[in-house]
Design brief:
Helix content is 75%, strand content 0%. It is an all-alpha fold and 183 residues long. Helix 1 packs antiparallel against helix 8, helix 4 runs antiparallel to helix 8 and helix 6 packs across helix 7.
């Protein structure tokens, strides 16, 4: 679920962030690509040293902290009185989500070391499901309730990331029958 949530939110930010600030907050059309660029640049800036952060603090703590920051960023986006405030929210949101995808693959491989390929394929299915769900749900919400409501569903879903961060905790690999000591 945290992976689905991340990709749902990423899809919302990538596909709908520009529309939100232009149609919902009255920004000039030229602002839309800058919103996306800020989101992606901060995501990259966090992901580059991300392995060191995980090595130092642990995956669970990094994901939980990022998730909490992401919830705050989405609150900022939803209540933004001006597009410039939403732009800050989108930039912070990018950084908050940065480590979920790589740590999702690591966690999947640890959960099922003998079937890592299948586990990683399931992570990719969560990616696609999140993207597709966001595309249709956000369009529907905007159509019914207006552009200002576009990020209410991503906000609601975002709480799953910090709540489920324990799934990213490093667990010892199960012992194989060959390594189990008898008597």
């Amino acid at each position: 679920m945290p992976t689905f949530a991340m990709w749902f939110i990423d899809s919302a930010a990538s596909a709908w962030g520009g529309i939100y600030v232009v149609d919902g907050l009255g920004a000039a059309a030229a602002v839309a690509p800058a919103i996306y660029a800020a989101y992606q640049l901060v995501l990259l800036a966090v992901r580059l040293p991300g392995d060191r952060l995980v090595a130092h603090f642990g995956a669970e703590r990094v994901i939980r902290t990022g998730g909490i920051v992401g919830v705050g960023a989405l609150v900022l986006i939803v209540v933004a009185p001006h597009w410039s405030v939403a732009a800050v929210g989108f930039a912070v949101l990018g950084g908050s989500l940065a480590m979920v995808p790589p740590q999702s693959f690591v966690a999947a491989a640890h959960i099922s070391p003998d079937n890592a390929e299948d586990a990683i394929a399931r992570v990719n299915l969560a990616n696609y499901a999140g993207y597709l769900a966001a595309a249709s749900l956000i369009a529907g919400v905007a159509e019914v309730f207006g552009e200002r409501s576009m990020f209410l569903i991503p906000l609601a879903i975002s709480v799953l990331i910090p709540l489920m961060a324990g799934r990213f905790a490093t667990r010892p690999a199960p012992e194989s029958p060959e390594t189990v000591k008898l008597g």
